[in-house]
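Hi,

I'm pasting everything inline rather than attaching a file, because the server keeps stripping attachments. The sequence lines come first, and each chain or strand is labelled.
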Amino acid sequence: MQKLAPIEEFTEVTPSAAIDRSAHGWRAKCLQRLIRIGLPVPKTVSLPAATVRAIAAGHLVDCKAILSHFGPGALVSVRPSPENPDWGGPATILNVGHNKARHEDLVNRHGQDAADAISLRFIQSYATHVARLDPDMFEAKDPSPDAIREALRVYAIEMDEDFPEDPAQQLAEVLRSMARAWEGTTARLLRQAKGAPDEAPLGLVVQAMAQGMGQGISGSGVIQFVDPVTGLPQVTGRYLGKGQGRDALKASKALYLTRDPRGPSLEDIAPEIFTRLVQDGAACRQKLREEMQIEFTIEDGQLAVLDAVRVQRSARASLRIAVDLAQDGIITPQEAVLRVEPRALSELLHPQVDPRGPRNVVANGIAASPGAATGRIVFSSAAAQASASRGEPCILVRRETAPEDIRGMHSAAAVLTERGGMTSHAAVIARGLGLPCVVGANLRLDLREKRIHMNGQAFGEGDLITVDGTAGQVLAGAAEMLTPALDDHFQTLLGWADQFRDIGIRANADTPADAATARKFAAQGIGLCRTEHMFFEEDRLVVMREMIFADASKDRAAALARLLPMQREDFVQLFEIMAGLPVCIRLFDPPLHEFLPHDREGMRELAEALDKPLSDVTRRVEALAEFNPMLGMRGVRLGVVLPEIYDMQAQAIFEATVEVARRGAAVVPEVMIPLVSAKREVELVKARVDAVAANVKIKAGRDFDYKLGVMVETPRAALRAGEIAQHAAFLSFGTNDLTQMTYGLSRDDAGRFMNTYVQQGVFPEDPFHILDVEGVGELLLIGANRGRKTRADLTLSICGEHGGNPESIAFCRRAGFDYVSCSPYRVPLARLAAAHLALNETSV
Ligand code: PEP
Ligand code: MG
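And the predicted assembly:
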């Protein structure tokens, strides 16, 4: 390549030098800060991004001038300094300037072995990183004069020239190769995946080598002051006598830093240096406002700090570190909140597979509900319940789950299905229960043989597997686990988040257990209680089926009268747990046939229970069958055609309101009508609900307030929201059905082709997972605007599975929604994400 004119753009890093992060990169800036706070950093020169870019384009930098800063015969290291440490960069090269003369010098000062080690290391790293020769040719050999000769010989043969002896030439080549590596396609793609812009700048830092060799205490190490997995204050790291760079982290003979029963430590052999390092660490934390990992060298008892990087950390460590820094007054609570990534919180709420342990993955699927659990395979709800009653954790494996599996799911430690997507039944219920769940897994289920085939292995009932719902993986056998971390630090951070956010967060909760979880995570109420889930308890299911089989309204009323007290008790419990917080109860939604048995055995049992001929049962089940049940007799359509069901539910809600009020807890229930598509549907239901309320008030001799609202789940309801809002105090967008109907895409079957669709770029993401702001989002905006035009105080919310996603929260917040409602276990994430949105807006 033709060399262009030499340039002289570089700056020595001193306390007052003009070093800014955008020009010189984070590392140069960080080193300057270390120097400013008095840490013993060896002499350092920074090349700004403009210089590095010029070098990549073929300009030469005046390396003699750079080296003159370090004095004659000095060796230097070169490290990358991108603007953001997460953007990576080329590998650090140590000992640049090393040649035969330096080798002799080192032999005289530190002995043959030490000198050989440095020589060989430099030749190897120069050959592979700078000359780009095959690393296999320079495989690590024990340092010796022969090994050095061999390495130099291979270099000369491959490069057709001798290994460069001139330090300035070496440095020029190192700088050129690092500058060009940064421009390479792979490096670009890697950093862009981490959010780097197209033209991300790279600075380079040249630093005098501190050798870690000498007669007195000499070596190198790495120290940090928190545990990277838990974030607990604890000195971790290693020290290697006569070592260089980060060698200590790999070497088996490295020492511990602080006193340790497992072996000798730096604190034992050099207590003053250890104390100084601890002081330096504290100064870094205070002034750099971060937990740093410090790379240091000791040369004849003299400490040098070469570099400091942000401690790598797990999600739980990240939270603990942020809260500790804020509680120590080093950062503000706002900063602490912004330092924790909302999505990472789910790692803290559930047990997780320990990343440090082995992982025997046998199947992959959609990560439908986070957390991990180990258990024995069962193939039916009944087996899951039996297993739970024996106190044995089990994994419920189904082709897909249906409402009758709910009790089995309650009993299981995790759920695994062959079919389904993010909003399939299994996924929604598992998220609500906080159960790890993988759906749409690449396994073959043979229900007759009771076997699962995964990755060429067969697993039978009773075999032990682990479902990792965070990673979407199935592991053979039991995995090592990390326990959840809902400790004081967690509560503190979320308490701060609540002070900063400006959109409400409620939970979708169907059962008292869900409601208790919602309270535990400080949801501001229940945004969706799916009442149908209450009818799957054994005793209720029978009555429910009697109700469905009733031919006459009178018989139906009799069955409903038996359901009424049970339903009332459900609401009493919910209201009590929520202690005055709003509770939004959705009237019955699913097609009735979901409550009927689907196999012959179940139908025979039902015939027995109802004392009817089997043929009656099969005929009724057939009569209720629909070609398209999700678009059939469900939601408000049932309310219009069989109004007694909603009457019973309204009565139960209002009687529970009265009962709870008598005990002293005021509650204003919210009654929500599902699957509306026309104003008249709302008028019909509202007239009856109002009548029931009036009746209950008269009978109880007590007044109460309630709100009636509409769930917007059909495109037509969104389009007609203006007139629907005449009769609704609130609109809650059910984005699961709304997505299904906007795309004309079955939420239960989409999993089969969603991967292909996303891979081929037809959809940017699974719209059942990430809200489609372009299409479904437009309907949300239309509905919200038209609704608010009719009624300025209309409460707006979203309660589909999207409700807990940061992207959906951002959308709803921009659109002026009052709250989002999501699975109880998503509530913490939603609280934190909402705080991020508000804080990022104020800091712009
Ligand atoms: C929805 O459709 O978005 C919703 C919340 O209701 P469900 O998932 O019960 O159909
Ligand atoms: Mg729905």
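The two ends are 45 Å apart (CA to CA).

If the labels don't parse on your end, tell me and I'll reformat.
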